[in-house]
Amino acid sequence: MTRIAILGGGISGLTAAYELELARQHGAPIDWHLYESTNRLGGIIQTTHQDGFILEQGPDAWVTEKPWARDLAIELGLESQLISSNDATRKTYIYLSNQLQPIPDNMRMMVPTDLTALENSPLFSTEAKQAYAEELANAAQLREAAPDQDESVATFVLRHFGEEVLTKIAAPLLSGIFGGDIHKLSAHAVMPAFVAMEREHGSLILALQSRSNRDPKPIFTTLRNGLATLTDALVAKLPPERLHLNHPAISLKREANRWCLRTAPPAAKGRTGKSKKHFNHILLATPLDATRTLLIPLDPTAPALLPTDASSAILATFAWPAETAATFTLPQGFGFLIPHPFHNSVISTEAQRCGETRSSAGTCPQLLAATFVTQKFPHRAPPNARILRAYFGGPSADALNSSSDETITDAALTQLRKILQLTEQAPLPDPTLTIVSRLPRSLPQYEVGHLDRIAQLDDRIATLGNLTLLGNAYRGVGLPDLIRDARTAARKLT
Fold this sequence. Notes:
Blueprint: E1 2-7, H1 11-25, E2 30-35, E3 47-50, E4 53-56, E5 62-63, H2 68-75, E6 82-84, E7 92-96, E8 99-102, E9 107-108, E10 111-112, H3 126-137, H4 139-145, H5 153-161, H6 163-178, H7 187-190, H8 192-201, H9 204-210, E11 220-223, H10 228-236, E12 243-244, E13 249-255, E14 258-263, E15 275-279, E16 281-284, H11 288-295, E17 310-320, H12 322-325, E18 335-337, E19 369-372, H13 373-376, E20 386-393, H14 395-400, H15 405-421, E21 433-444, H16 450-464, E22 467-469, H17 479-493
Parallel strand pairs: 1-2, 1-16, 2-12, 7-18, 16-22
Antiparallel strand pairs: 3-4, 5-11, 6-11, 7-8, 9-10, 13-14, 14-15, 17-20, 17-21, 18-19, 19-20
Helix pairs in contact: 1-17, 2-17, 4-8, 5-6, 8-9
């Protein structure tokens, strides 16, 4: 009998447990147990249902072109729950020069498929439009000069399109996904598809044009009743006696050919203490910082190969019923992004009301982005009601993390009102429902050289024997990537 411990009850740990349970039910000689440090399963996936609204407190969707989340949802009987983003009205804005300027149509991130779509765009200067045209014309030179070694996202984008495109569109888009510094983020790790396009075509525009005849897929996919539907369905397939909540892992130690796991179970009958159990294999699906702590005593060199930094996020979600939503109009599309560093004055000094959250420069923590949720996924609210989600990331999220929910919502609404008023719409009324979600250090930063360091880390972990690392610190931060890796690891054990 092979005993397997899964540490961490987020999407990675739950998916691995599901795969192991399938094998166990089919006769595989395994005995698995999952240990979660908190009182709930699902990790950063959390959905709140209230007054007919479906409010996501973590991720709200996955990228459609990656199939692994969809495949798992269908396998769990959730095919009827699958819905796509409303791409017929998809538009994203960049907040520049005190106004919302739309990203031109037919773009994949910062890369256009049709240069004519740029002609009347106020977002880009004549010089930036010329840089796009030259990128297409210089395809052969770009392919010849494509470096073999890793480089920063900033360097990669600069080579193709120049500083303006980097600042206005690439930086805010990637910060919205990874929350990181584009001058440190690894192009090979966070933009592998674009790196592959460069090696094949040179020009990224040419590469996308060569694919333009393929059937387009919606950008995002989610579940009608929220992403927690997926984690709830996974939990429903697992025997409750194998799921141990409030059991943080204290230490891992190799004893002969087995792992000794110590956890701190919840107090019972006035007693406290540590639980000690032995396992043949450990699936370590804990967050980055917890993983680092557990690895240091095992191999002091291994933690140095993990990402050194992680970005925080704070989400402020606001909802308005139909009668209140009728009093204001949002711009058509999915939402807006704000370039960073932030050179536009969103809030005047007199209007700033950040209290203890002021930075050393005396300014408010700045929004990075906002999503018009009910325009992206119309099924998230009752008819004609609205949901808007504001996003603080990186240093702004760190500055706000210890602040009250009221301070966070005040900072978000003040900025939203200023930005949305500039579209000449009616002022944004007070929401009837507000939820604040804190995700501290939730996005590990894939800095230049990340893939090489992960390969070295794999080698170090292999020397420890029967230990597997899972989660968003290694080979992707999206739900499909985490599901793929967890299923692959569990299948290797069965």
